[in-house]
């Protein structure tokens, strides 16, 4: 498995961090409980030892009247201030006062005191440093054990999260393939897991299958309509040709019939492109002459400039179709002057109108969507056909707004590519 760079935004590392935080929180809570329990047990043990020693010293003092060997006999003024205060606060006889000294020079001493008369206090000291060192050793052991556990938990959490992350990455790659036009792509079921990711994958696959079916139905409908219209349309063309030449109404009919015929032919071409039925015939042709012929076929006043035009191996019919559509689109939706330039294997078509619509630059040409309110009238198939023919050729066709205003379309025949939208 290839090593992936560390990315804190990755789900893998977020899941691993969550597991580590949960483990650390659990270890901290358990450690605090164990620490507190051990500390309380040590203090109880110290209190019991101190009480036992003080009780024995008190009995010995009562029997002999002298200071016992295991205790000190002093006035309240000679006692440490905290212990003297605790003794002064005693209310009942035969009760003991305690003070735990954790400061130098008496580290970890537990003092116990009891007054024996109005002027003297019997005191004993119990060393709790052993209990404290044991508690410190326990704390270090728990920290060491926690760090050792993390060395096992962190890789395990990363590996566990990577399994989920890998399935999600596979799903996102498949979704991008579907969005890019590969409607046969499917996520599929990987392994035996039956979880939310499996349900999401099944839903995406079902969506892709439904989308593929609807698009196939749309393509069949477009092709069927175009084929069905072709026969009556040819009758209309023939009938329109028999109308008087000098009749204004007849001229209008011929114009509209010609427009309808062009639309039907465009629909047929789109259906062939959608079906993948187009085949390329490669010939070596001078690109400058080929573009000049296409510009002449498109009509309109167009400025043509060639500079070091190359001889390219391509399908001349398709190149002419692309250039003619781009020039016709520039005249219909742009503004004069329309300029065509040929440099090497690259052909650019520019007008000086308002530029391409933002939706076209973002998503590419869409059939029957022309932005007519802003740029003119049309059925939106010209640029769609140009993109489809460029894809058949393996050429790159890009659309952009030209510097200084206007729309710019560039066809690059130098090598394989994909049609899209880029900045000029």
From TrEMBL:
Lineage: superkingdom: Bacteria
Localization terms from the record: Cell membrane
Pfam families: HAMP, HATPase_c, HisKA
Domain HAMP: 162-216
InterPro entries, per database record: HAMP_dom (IPR003660), HATPase_C_sf (IPR036890), HATPase_dom (IPR003594), His_kinase_dom (IPR005467), HisK_dim/P_dom (IPR003661), HisK_dim/P_sf (IPR036097), TCS_sensor_his_kinase (IPR050428)
PROSITE patterns recorded: HAMP, HIS_KIN
First-listed, main subcellular location of the protein, grouped into a coarse class: membrane
SMART domains: HAMP, HATPase_c, HisKA
EC number of the protein: 2.7.13.3
UniProt-listed Gene3D superfamilies: 1.10.287.130, 6.10.340.10, Histidine kinase-like ATPase, C-terminal domain (3.30.565.10)
Keyword entries, A-Z: Kinase, Membrane, Phosphoprotein, Transferase, Transmembrane, Transmembrane helix, Two-component regulatory system
PANTHER family to which the protein is assigned, alphabetical: SENSOR HISTIDINE KINASE TRCS (PTHR45436:SF5), SENSOR HISTIDINE KINASE YKOH (PTHR45436)
Record protein name field: histidine kinase
């Amino acid at each position: 498995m290839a090593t992936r760079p560390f990315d804190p935004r990755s789900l893998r590392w977020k899941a691993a961090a969550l597991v580590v935080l949960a483990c650390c929180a659990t270890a901290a809570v358990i450690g605090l409980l164990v620490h507190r329990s051990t500390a309380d047990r040590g203090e109880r043990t110290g209190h019991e030892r101190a009480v036992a020693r003080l009780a024995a010293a008190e009995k010995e003092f009562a029997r002999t009247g002298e200071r016992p060997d295991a205790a000190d006999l002093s006035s309240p003024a000679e006692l440490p201030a905290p212990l003297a205060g605790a003794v002064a606060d005693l209310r009942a006889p035969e009760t003991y006062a305690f003070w735990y000294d954790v400061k130098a020079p008496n580290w970890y001493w537990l003092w116990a005191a009891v007054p024996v008369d109005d002027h003297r206090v019997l005191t004993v000291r119990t060393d709790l440093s052993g209990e404290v060192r044991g508690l410190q050793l326990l704390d270090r052991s728990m920290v060491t054990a926690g760090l050792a556990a993390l060395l096992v938990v962190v890789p395990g959490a990363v590996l566990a999260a990577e399994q989920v992350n890998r399935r999600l990455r596979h799903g996102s790659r498949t979704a991008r393939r579907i969005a890019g036009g590969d409607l046969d792509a499917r996520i599929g079921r990987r392994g035996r897991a039956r979880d939310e990711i499996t349900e999401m994958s099944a839903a995406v696959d079902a969506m892709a299958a439904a989308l593929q079916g609807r698009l196939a139905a749309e393509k069949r409908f477009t092709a069927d309509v175009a084929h069905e219209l072709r026969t009556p349309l040819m009758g209309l063309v023939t009938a329109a040709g028999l109308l008087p030449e000098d009749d204004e109404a007849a001229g209008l009919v011929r114009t509209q019939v010609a427009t309808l015929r062009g639309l039907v032919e465009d629909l047929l071409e789109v259906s062939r492109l959608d079906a993948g039925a187009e085949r390329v015939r490669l010939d070596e042709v001078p690109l400058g002459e080929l573009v000049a012929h296409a510009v002449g076929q498109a009509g309109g006043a167009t400025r043509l400039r060639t500079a070091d035009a190359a001889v390219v191996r391509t399908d001349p019919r398709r190149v002419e179709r692309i250039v003619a559509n781009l020039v016709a689109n520039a005249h219909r939706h742009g503004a004069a002057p329309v300029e065509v330039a040929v440099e090497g294997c690259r052909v650019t078509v520019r007008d000086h109108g308002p530029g391409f619509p933002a939706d076209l630059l973002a998503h590419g040409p869409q059939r029957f969507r022309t932005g007519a309110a802003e740029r003119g009238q049309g059925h939106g198939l010209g640029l769609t056909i140009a993109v489809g023919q460029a894809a058949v050729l393996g050429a790159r066709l890009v659309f952009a707004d030209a510097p200084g205003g206007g729309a710019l379309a560039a066809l690059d025949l130098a090598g394989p590519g994909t049609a899209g939208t880029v900045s000029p």
